[in-house]
Amino acid sequence: MLQQVSFPIRSECPPGACVCERERLLVEPDADLRPLRLTRMEEQKLIGRIENISSYEELKRLQEKIRANLGVELKIVPGPNEVRTLRGIVILLEDRPGLCKKVRQSIPAAIRKVLDRHPEITWAILDSHDLFGM
User: Is residue 47 within 8 Å of residue 107, measured between CB atoms?
Assistant: First the structure.
């Protein structure tokens, strides 16, 4: 039996297009439904907020908000190999039931665009992981 929710949730993806396990989440009585709160309209607002980030501190606050509101970890770390370009930064949105595959791709892509426009944020990420040794 599906849970009744008192807030708008993301509409169902076409069959075979996603592996978000939305139905399984709605059936479990004690499941964390926070990822389902990210409707398509809310996703567009979030992408807009990401695109307006202009500092490392704003990026850190956004990571905390995503963790608090969606229960999902957004990891932005230098890759295991040498970081020569922006592609050396690993941006990963944790795989969580209820979180659409499109969202797991669109949020990192938006962050990558921000890092491309604001290289000082990329340097701050590297510095926060002691890669500059400062």
Answer: yes
